[in-house]
Amino acid sequence: MSRSKTKAQNPDRQLRKICLSFPDAYEEETWEIPTFRIRKKIFCMRVDHDDRPAIWYKAPEGVQRILMESDPERFFRPPYLGPKGWVGMHLDKSPDWDEAAFMLRRSFMLVAPKRISAKLPPLESDEPC
Fold this sequence. Notes:
The chain contains four helices and six strands.
């Protein structure tokens, strides 16, 4: 996997590019923060956590723990949605956008109706958690 990294000062442009590339995805401001949705269901939220840019996204069961244990500086359990398995990921310090794109795509596929997520190629099993 290539390590596509960009400056982290303002990750919003890259985040939008990834999230809005999914079929029928759109951005909507809620609670004064950008949220990315499919059919009114949120698959990603852009937040600030500990004064650092971050995202919250849906993940399969067990992934939150694995990521937090592997890199606690980058991954965290977000308030409110953390108990439901969502993952928080800091976007400062040169984020790996290929990795973020994989995780956001998986989040989209978990939330989207099956006929919409079927428009995307299947996820590869050797990708990151």
